[in-house]
Amino acid sequence: MARIIVITSGKGGVGKTTTSASFAAGLALRGHKTVVIDFDVGLRNLDLIMGCERRVVYDIINVINNESSLNQSLIKDKHCDNLYILPASQTRDKDALTLEGVERVINELAKDFEYIVCDSPAGIEKGALTALYFADEAIVVTNPEVASVRDSDRILGLLASKSRRAIENLEPIREHLLVTRYAPERVEKGEMLSVNDVKEILRIPFIGVVPESQAVLQASNSGTPVIHVNGADASDAYKDVVARFLGEDRPHRFLDVQKVGLLKRLFGG
Ligand SMILES: Nc1ncnc2c1ncn2[C@@H]1O[C@H](COP(=O)(O)OP(=O)(O)OP(=O)(O)O)[C@@H](O)[C@H]1O
Ligand SMILES: [Mg+2]
């Protein structure tokens, strides 16, 4: 049985697409056949971050409208085996992304893939609801600031009331809290909420933090999910998240300010 995972947040710009790309790539690196679907019709960012934007010919709405087959629309990832991307449409009407259409696409994908990762658009309306509807698991991406935490809380309400699992009275969606763009030095200065604050408010299982990192933007600009940037903190953080998702017990990192040693302070580096 394929597992369907939505990457969701409520608030915009918190790191959903960054996480979708690296999380899906991480599952593929671990040998799991994975597809990542861009639900952000109109913006279409995922293919840019995955570096396949020039290869997009058909998208999910073509599949839904029977204008292309799934096979014609899936793009094989160029960084790793086992990974495919189903892009969103940039130009089409968002209403074309119907629940019936998405269900058909997901059912067909489920025959072939172990994991189906859904990159949700921002907001708490139709687009976000469509992305979360079929989910078995949800990674709730939250930045350590009040507005983001509040919107994540709203999303938790929707997962528990508007998803297929809620409506059909099935076992609830498994939720995971991922805190991204975390900067412990700003937490120490009182400029950001701490991970403990966020955990306290949302009270769902915590899967990790991704530190604020310049490597993320650089990687995105070059069309490479940051998980592939060896040595970058954000890459290690995403690898940990994938391992924990797969059931491994990994100690949490990147929670505290890195103490810079005397030599490093004197001589840089
Ligand atoms: N850990 C990080 N460190 C630094 N910058 C980050 C990090 N994660 C994401 N960003 C940056 O934040 C911005 C928003 O990221 P992203 O597009 O992944 O968010 P999103 O939640 O998908 O946005 P939207 O709601 O518009 O879909 C991007 O410029 C990205 O490079
Ligand atoms: Mg996005």
Give an overview of the whole structure.
This protein has 13 helices and 8 strands. By secondary structure, the protein is α/β, with parallel strands linked by helices. The chain has an 8-stranded mixed β-sheet with strand order 3-4-2-5-1-6-7-8, sandwiched between helices. A hairpin with a 6-residue loop joins strand 3 and strand 4 (83-86). Helix 1 packs across helix 12. The structure holds adenosine-5'-triphosphate and magnesium ion.
Name the descriptors.
binds magnesium ion, eight-stranded mixed beta sheet, binds adenosine-5'-triphosphate, 269 residues, 13 helices
Summarize the amount of helix as a percent range: 25-40%
Helix/strand-derived category reads alpha/beta
How many strand segments? 8
In the predicted model, the low-confidence regions spanning at least 5 consecutive residues are none
Bound molecules: adenosine-5'-triphosphate, magnesium ion
Strand content: 15-25%
Largest sheet, order of strands side by side?
3-4-2-5-1-6-7-8
Radius of gyration: 18 Å
Topology, please?
Blueprint: E1 3-8, H1 16-29, E2 34-38, H2 46-49, H3 60-64, H4 70-73, E3 75-76, E4 83-86, H5 99-110, E5 115-119, H6 126-133, E6 137-142, H7 146-159, H8 164-167, E7 174-182, H9 184-188, H10 195-202, E8 206-211, H11 214-221, H12 233-245, H13 262-267
Parallel strand pairs: 1-5, 1-6, 2-4, 2-5, 6-7, 7-8
Antiparallel strand pairs: 3-4
Helix pairs in contact: 1-12
Briefly, what is this?
By secondary structure, the protein is an alpha/beta fold. It is built from 13 helices and eight strands.
